[in-house]
Design a protein that fits this description.
This protein is α/β, with parallel strands linked by helices. The chain has a single domain, classed as 3-Layer(aba) Sandwich (Rossmann fold). Strands 3-2-1-4-5-10-7 form a seven-stranded mixed sheet, with helices on both faces. The protein binds S-adenosylmethionine (SAM). S-adenosylmethionine (SAM) binds next to loops. The site of S-adenosylmethionine has 15 residues, from loops.
Length: 246
C-alpha cells in the first residue's frame, strides 16, 4: 500500500503514515518541505518517508499511484475553482477504490466562555472580508458536496467538537494563548469588540483562558484526531473529518 500525505506537516506527523507503506509528503513552500524533512529525520529517522516540493493544483505523481491521500488544513488556501482542480488531482493520483481524507477547521464552532459566545464568529466573519483563507474556512461544512461534485463516492463528513473546561491544561493555554493574542490584535485593528482586549496578554490574569469557570470549544482542529493517526487506516477513517472513495 502506498499513501500520499498531502500536504506535509511542519509538526512531523507525516512519519505516522509510514505505518502504511511509502508515503510521500508534499508542500508548495520549499521552506515547509525543509522543516518537515528535518522533523521527520529527527522523529522517524528510518521511516522511509519522502518529502518533496509540489502543488496540489498539479500533483507531481502518476495517475493511479496511491491508495490514500491525506490533505490536512490546506484546502483553506484554495478558492472554489482551485479546490475543484485539487480534488480532481487527488482523484487522478488515487487508484480505483482509494480513499481521500480531508481535514479542515470549522471556525463556526469556536466559542470561549466567559464572554460573548459569538465573539469568535463575529471575528471570523469580519476577517473573512479581508483574508481569503479565513473566508474559505467558512465553507468547511459544505466540503462533502465538493467531494461528491468531484466524483468521489461514499462521501462522509464528520464534524468533531473539541471541548475544554477550566482549569485548562497548560498545553491548551500554551497553544491558544499566543494564537488568540494575535487574533485580538487583528480584531482590535478591525474595530471589533473591546472584549478582545483581555486576550492580548496570553499570561494576563484577565485572559479568559485563565478563568476559573472557563470553557472553550473548537471544531475539527486536529488534536482530537492526531492521537488516532497510528491506528490502521480503516479505523482511522471515522475520525477524519471528510472522506471519499475514488
Ligand atoms: C496550515 S499549514 C498545514 C500544514 C500541514 N498539512 C499540517 O497539517 O500540519 C498549510 C500548508 O499548505 C501549504 N499549501 C498552501 N497552498 C498549497 C498548494 N497549492 N499546494 C501545496 N501546498 C500548499 C502551505 O505552504 C502550508 O505549509
Amino acid at each position: 500500500m502506498r499513501a500520499a500525505a498531502v500536504v506535509c506537516s511542519r509538526r512531523g506527523s507525516l512519519g505516522w503514515w509510514a505505518a502504511w507503506g511509502s508515503p510521500v509528503g508534499m508542500d508548495v513552500d520549499e521552506r515547509q518541505v525543509a522543516v518537515a524533512a528535518a522533523r521527520i529525520g529527527q522523529s522517524y529517522p528510518s521511516c522511509g518517508v519522502q518529502v518533496r516540493q509540489g502543488d496540489v493544483l498539479c500533483l507531481p505523481f502518476e495517475d493511479d499511484s496511491f491508495d490514500a491521500v491525506w490533505c490536512s488544513d490546506t484546502v483553506r488556501y484554495l478558492d472554489d475553482g482551485q479546490l475543484s482542480v485539487a480534488l480532481g488531482e487527488f482523484r487522478r493520483v488515487l487508484r480505483p477504490g482509494g480513499v481521500l481524507a480531508v481535514r479542515e477547521r470549522d471556525p463556526s464552532l469556536v466559542m470561549v466562555r466567559p464572554g460573548d459566545p459569538y465573539l469568535f464568529l463575529d471575528y471570523y466573519r469580519a476577517v473573512a472580508a479581508h483574508v481569503a483563507c479565513t473566508r474559505h474556512l467558512l465553507r468547511s461544512r459544505e466540503l462533502h458536496r465538493r467531494l461528491e461534485g468531484a466524483g468521489f463516492t461514499m462521501v462522509r463528513q464528520h464534524t468533531i467538537l473539541i471541548e475544554h473546561y477550566a482549569p485548562l491544561s497548560s498545553d491548551v493555554v500554551r497553544y491558544r494563548g499566543p494564537a488568540w493574542s494575535q487574533a485580538a490584535r487583528t480584531a482590535l485593528r478591525l474595530g471589533l469588540e473591546p472584549q478582545w482586549k483581555p486576550f492580548l496578554d496570553p499570561d494576563g490574569e484577565q485572559n479568559p483562558l485563565r478563568a476559573a469557570d472557563g470553557y472553550i470549544s473548537e471544531g475539527c482542529a486536529g488534536r482530537g484526531q492526531r492521537r488516532h493517526a497510528l491506528t490502521p487506516l480503516p479505523r482511522l477513517l471515522p475520525r477524519i473529518t471528510l472522506t471519499g472513495v475514488r
